Amino acid sequence: MDAERGRFIVFEGGEGSGKSTASLAVVQRLQAEGRPVLHTREPGGTPAGELVRGLLHQPLTPWAELFAFLAARAQLVATVIRPALDRGETVVCDRFAPSTFAYQVHARGLDPVVVRTANAAATGGLEPDLVVYLDIPPETGLARKHGEDEAIRTGLEDLEFHRKVREGYLLQARAAAARWTVIDAAFPPARVAELALAAVRTTLHG
Ligand code: TMP
Known about the structure:
The chain is of the alpha/beta class. The protein is built from 9 helices and 5 strands.
């Protein structure tokens, strides 16, 4: 008999939200309990995807940037995520399509209909069973990531962009509330991880 398809869990958040720390803590807990869990990230997770991460240091037009992210996603879904889900493993991925809708659509202003179609082609229609979104005001997140002085230097234009990113996430969370959990990333990391783990457990046992 085929193994039951595994659950697909995505961690999302703006810069400095602590999503990678939280997802790692959750993965380690589940693995310690003997559950097969594959932890991956976007962009990245495959050799081609890691090259795409390097490409993002180049100045790219918004559409070029979109297709770079989608190239990494298509490769990751086909060669890593789907095979693991088909083996019955839980897959935890740092960032996925919700990043594209927050950054490229909501913040950069790309046409949502075109992006939705292109994204569905890249993923073959794969959707997360759960999105764990770590919510943080961009002022706090950027200061965490780069230090206070650097955050001040990033300036208002950057801050405005990251405010739109956050808005884009919150709109998605509202539109798909049953599949999203929003966690206040201002909590200490251990508390964030605990809340994330509780949400993941509900999805795994549901
Ligand atoms: P990270 O290492 O913090 O996850 O950085 C990845 C960057 O790529 C981050 O600024 C968000 C951005 N990104 C997009 O703009 N669109 C996407 O679809 C993805 C996956 C990431």
